[in-house]
Request: fold
Amino acid sequence: MVVKDRGGVLGLFVLVILLGFVKNGEALAHAHTLLINCGTNENVTLDGAQWVGDSAPNKNITISTSHTIEAAISSIDGNPAYESLYRTARIFSEPLNYTIHGAPGNYFLRLHFYPFKILNFDPDQSYFGVETCCFTLASSLNVPYAISQKNAHASGRNSSFIALVKEYYIPVQTNSTVITFLPDKGSFGFINAIEIVQVFDKLFVDSVKQVGGNGADVGLDLQNRGIETMYRLNIGGTMIKRDQDSSFRRKWEEDWSYMINPDAGTQLRNTSRITYASPNDTSLAPLVVYETAKTMTNITLVVMRFFNMSWRLPVDPSFDYLIRLHFCELVYDKSSQRIFRIYVNNKTAAENVDIFTKAGGRDKAYHEDYVDAMTSNSNNLWVQLGPEAASIDQGSDAALNGLEIFKLSRDGNLGYVPNLGDESNGKSNVRFWLGIVFGIVAIAGIGWLIICVCKKKRTKDVKGKKSCGRSGKRFTLADLKAATNNFDDSLVIGVGGFGKVYKGELNDGILAAIKRSNPQSQQGLLEFETEIELLSKLRHRHLVSMIGFCDEQNEMILIYEYMSNGTLRSHLFGGDLPSLSWKQRLEICIGAARGLYYLHTGSEGGIIHRDVKTTNILLDGRFVAKMSDFGLSKSGPSLEHTHVSTAVKGSFGYLDPEYFMKQRLTAKSDVYSFGVVMFEVVCARAVINSSLPLEQINLAEWAMVCQKKGILETIIDPSLRGNYSPKSLKSFAEIAEKCLADEGVARPTMGELLCHLEYALQLQDSWLNPNDAG
Ligand SMILES: *[C@@H]1O[C@H](CO)[C@@H](O)[C@H](O)[C@H]1NC(C)=O
Ligand SMILES: *[C@@H]1O[C@H](CO)[C@@H](O)[C@H](O)[C@H]1NC(C)=O
Reply:
């Protein structure tokens, strides 16, 4: 609901200079690198390198400037690292040629696009191609104002205002190369910056292993092929900026957003003494790429190590792709400690991979290349690493340090147009140029006026929206400070990734649980507001109800009814509270199940809790069970395992393996977790207890083993002994077992579960009062 002020796009000092000359000039300081700042005669210095204005005299570049304009704005939206570079662009409505003078050889060519709105220039309407003598680099390229994450190949950013940087690796056979920018018919295009880096080293070899080819090599004919970089990921590490990769100014992104299940990989880091396995490899990737890796998360406790680490990377169909994996063994000092398989597009690329052996030791940086063709209907390239054997042996682990995906040209073409036959590509050419001409005259005078009006209007909109459609009670920050003794730590009754929960007394004397998100919380204000909206609609006897909220001064505070008996878990083990009777446990399970049943099927429908566990089942003064922590933002981190990223929300030990493996979230994932809760209720022990022998660590696994052998009674809470109906327990255990079925479809629904629980309660009641039977 909060509209971000975009910092005055329209106003600004606009410098638009129509021009038309060709220029030549002096030599560049960096012999092998040419950095061009488009649409200006000014040089800028960034990353310690100089970007020369394309209209300043320069003997390395010649440009054709008819039908182009130089456009500059004083500040731009977003906050790109290269702000001073991206403030200018060259806009063209006819073919624009950049002739680069230099020696034949292999070059990295990078094109930077950072769209800004100026006059009538709407980048959303621009479509253009890019060509060199021998290759089509891009076709009908459209770089909309707010670039989507997918287009930008950028990860970990919000989706707007990312520079699109397209990188190519091309062979050049002559002393000068012409790069032509070609607007689509009736449209126009723009370019902000160009980088040309000559590469003397051999970055690619012609003969590469074919995926699914049993180790056989294929020739790639790279002398005649252009290459486009699609992805360059520093696996398990942070972004490596261009100035940190001194050889070729390559940017390495984080990988997590491409992982199907980020929880599957654990970060590994080791900065000691890494060297290149081969002296020929020193420019393939900077050593810092090899310092971090991802290995398979040690979740043997949950599902054994029978899964893959998988990355899914959107690519264009119908091209050949070169897949380069960078490896370095960072942990083991001998071979056979880590043996795995590499799959590309669900086919085996390599088996029995042992990095230590292949690289010739520990801390040796090396890489493997594979090639695979994407079919015409697949636009995701999959890279997966998994163990050779489904065991928990030491050898069954995989690791990856870096990943690059390159697209290879087909018949000289690297361009791809997703929607052929879409006729609606930018057509407003005449209007655009007319607009420019009038705009130039008018803008200087009215620029500031426009900006003022826009700003005012926006402020109004924001206010209007904020005050409506709210149902929970809004508290002031002052109220809550008073209620919690200024958020006194002695009143904290719970802590998690989201922040802290305080016990507080509201001014009407009512006790409340006050949950305050910490400022670093990943949750945004917008999500918070959505959440309040939802929570205030969810009312049920077995759900902890929200009393109100506070969003003053960017605070995100929720106020819930206070549950005086705390969590179910605290009554099961690990404390000195009196133990619960079997009947009480059944009633609590029934209450919690009713709450979940309401979430799954109630009027707001289809809400999956995602984090069912005994610390989220709270008990009021009369031991009535209520579910808490429901409906919470999907993106918020969950409690207790903040060390693991949370694309899969849920707590280890309770986590549905099907959800974990397939990312398929259904109400049956809650049912699985509820099954674990049921065994916890019977056995009164932690769901993960790593001090126990291996087979007993994970309660869900261990209880299932005992249940299947019919010896569950040997592991139940000793305080229950003699105080329960064996029939009731048996029926309870049978249904818990069904909840833990591997496949969601085989598990009962919450409604079915509820019936069975009520039946188990009946059995217990008639055991307690045999005379009532009748
Ligand atoms: C590979 O398998 C995944 C998951 O089963 C599937 O979604 C994907 O489409 C497959 N990819 C290819 C290229 O066949
Ligand atoms: C890993 O991925 C490959 C290729 O998609 C698949 O055939 C294999 O079954 C997966 N392994 C596991 C353990 O899921």
Summary: The pocket of 2-acetamido-2-deoxy-beta-D-glucopyranose (ligand 2) is lined by residues 306-308, 343, 346, 384, 386 (CB under 6 Å). DSSP finds 15 helices and 37 strands in the chain. Confidence is low (pLDDT under 50) at residues 1-31, 148-160, 420-470, 633-647.
